[in-house]
Amino acid sequence: MFGKHDQIRKILLTLVVATIALSTNFSLAETTQDSDMDGLTDDAEITTYHTDRTKADTDEDGVLDAQEILDNTNPTDPGSNLLNTYKLDVAQPLFRTGSPVMWYIGRISGIAAFVVFTWVTCFGLLMTSKFLLKFKVFSAPTALETHSFSASIIGLALVVIHAGSLMFDSTIKLTLPEILIPFTVIRTFKSALGFDLNLPISLGILATYLALVLVSTSKLRGKVIKPKIWRAIHYTSFGFYLLFLFHGILTGSDSNQLWAQGIYLISVIIVTTLLLVRIFAKKYFIQSIKSQVSAEK
């Protein structure tokens, strides 16, 4: 089905499936866990009510968080509870109650997309490094084919699933303009790490558009776009990786979890290592050539 690069594609698909399985496992575990025993699951406290999952009474007003939700008061405001005969009209939050299925799909597909784009970036560095190709772990054609296959099919498909699920689910309901146009998410909700969502979501949108530019120009290389122009455009792939990295870290509801932080850290280490090898290996080869030329003279 996949042709001569069948083995490397199987590895990629296995990696994606493993990432999805890992994310699903942690997501389902979070669905029922209640660390502070206040009647609200950790997942609900983080994503729906923005309360402290380690404190049964987040605002320390004498009323448990779950009871304040039932009373329609604000569990993060000590002045908002029925004990004070004061009831606060809570504005409709970004995260809503309801079936979390689509939201979990959004989380899982987002993490899987990041893993795939890490793969894409790594093979791009492998493909352009003569030093790394000398080890013959992957041939240049295999690196190129895998790089293109990942970016054009799996990576972008996961991004579409990620964005679509966040628009149609009942937990985080982004509008179409908010998904397509950067800097249009004007809300007060904070991510798991405490960042406002507007900028991080915009980074993801910009990264997606940049990915589309990189993929489309690669298809037109040598036909419509000259190699030098294509090469100049392709240098922005480093910006593309950084945009996706910061988007994932700053918006991810799992970014405060060790397993998610591990994925980001491993990705950064691998990409940085390959980049440094490419840079210093290139300098080494240039110096070697200059030395040979000088010796011949």
UniProtKB/TrEMBL annotation:
Keyword Metal-binding: no
Domain of life: Bacteria
Keywords annotated in UniProt: Membrane, Signal, Transmembrane, Transmembrane helix
Name used for this protein in its record: Ferric oxidoreductase domain-containing protein
Signal sequence region: 1-29
Membrane-traversing stretches: 104-127, 148-168, 197-217, 229-250, 262-281
Alphabetized InterPro entries for the sequence: EF_Hand_1_Ca_BS (IPR018247)
Native species: candidate division WWE3 bacterium RIFOXYA2_FULL_46_9
